[in-house]
Amino acid sequence: MPPVLHTLVVDDDEPSANALASYLQAQGLRTSVAGSLASAREQLAAEPVDLVMLDLQLPDGNGTDLLRELERQAVDVVMISGQTTIEDAIAALRLGAVDFLQKPLDLPRLQAILANQQQRRALRSEVRELRRQLIGLGRFGDMIGASPAMQRVYECIERVAPTNETVLIMGPSGAGKEVTAATIQRLSRRKDQPFVTVNCGAIAPSLIESELFGHERGAFTGAEKRRKGLFEQADRGTLFLDEVTEMPIELQVRLLRVLETGRVTRVGGTEEVEVDVRLLAATNRDPEQAVADGKLRHDLLYRLLVFPIELPALCERPDDVELLAAHFLDELNDEYDDVRTLSAAALGRLQAHGWPGNVRELYNTLRRAYVMAKDEIQPSDLLLRGGDEAAEAAVAAGAGSPVEAPAEESEPVASADAAAGEALRMRPGMPIAEAEQMLIEATLRHTGGNKKEAANLLGISVKTLYSRLQVYEAKKG
Hints:
Blueprint: E1 6-10, H1 14-26, E2 30-34, H2 37-46, E3 51-55, E4 57-58, E5 61-62, H3 63-70, E6 76-81, H4 86-94, E7 99-102, H5 107-137, E8 139-140, E9 143-144, H6 148-160, E10 167-170, H7 177-186, E11 195-199, H8 205-213, H9 230-233, E12 238-242, H10 249-261, E13 263-265, E14 272-274, E15 278-283, H11 287-292, H12 298-304, E16 307-310, H13 321-336, E17 341-342, H14 344-352, H15 358-372, E18 376-377, H16 379-382, H17 389-397, E19 413-419, E20 422-426, H18 432-446, H19 451-458, H20 462-476
Parallel strand pairs: 1-2, 1-3, 3-6, 6-7, 10-15, 10-16, 11-12, 12-15, 17-18
Antiparallel strand pairs: 4-5, 8-9, 13-14, 19-20
């Protein structure tokens, strides 16, 4: 049997507060009452509360002050007020309130809010379990990675998933934007409802309007019957618009209207259809630059940027490559009912690669290597091209192969004169990524910090050099 919910009613109107408390108690909730912000803070500090029914206007301040304080806690807040405006309601919802009720309270709506509390509590328990998985296995649902950059992403997902807020997921191609959207859906109150996805760049501009909003019979040539669009298909659930900046600019006006009104009009129709859809969107572009380039309306950007999540490129979290590779290899072993492993040399090669295609490129690389390999995947099975200029330079600068054993294995191997007299000390079995870092840092010392000159000496692009330096800085942090 689930534990009894504890509700705190914060309202300086004593008759109104007591009436609401009595109603909540009749619904089986344990209920306390506070007549001011100060009293509410004392009670919240004394014992945990699941739900706060919070009046907007209080003797010692505005209810939104307390709402801001509760934003980071696992406490649901319903704002209530006798004198309210749409602006007040929107402001409260943006600050994290789960709903906004006007006095006299709409009891059926209040009952629906209370019914959601047990579900929200279950979702929080699931999120906590996922966090424990992260600590132990470097996983968060279907997302893989234990790096600080990914943990920041998980924290954002944990906070926004239980809400109905619009989310804009940003990151380079192949970084995992669709997996991120699916994780948000899984941890939301809509997890048992439809999850509809569409790539806006994969649909012909002439068809995307009909795909999103549907059409009536005879709306255009070939429209032989009425068709529900993706918004209607996602009703009560979630719609994920991947590569939203590829949507035709003229269609973005209609999208903005749907987001603001919650109603769609099918192509060729006049009737407005009400839909309850949570929107998740993603782009591999810099959204501000997309606005400057005329690819995204600025008013739509502001509507999408309610809650932004930025995914790191794989080159910015190199320590996650091993976790990802192990995960993908396990999947492939299950798929082919075989057992293949990854050699240490192959892993080093993977960790040294720049991964311009991010996680998707890593997955495809391992899939290809799985087919090429016999039992243990070797560097030659990976068939990697490009992106490893500095790593190759590090190998070339060493006295022979870095895995070549000298007469005395305990002694380090001295490299060639890599940076005008500065000898690099490498050891057998040193990871390529570590050797690469040594060479890059030594070359920068040689050039006095001139990155362009260092990149020329190393035979890599300045962009690649900056990418590597960002990784090294992140390690230090």
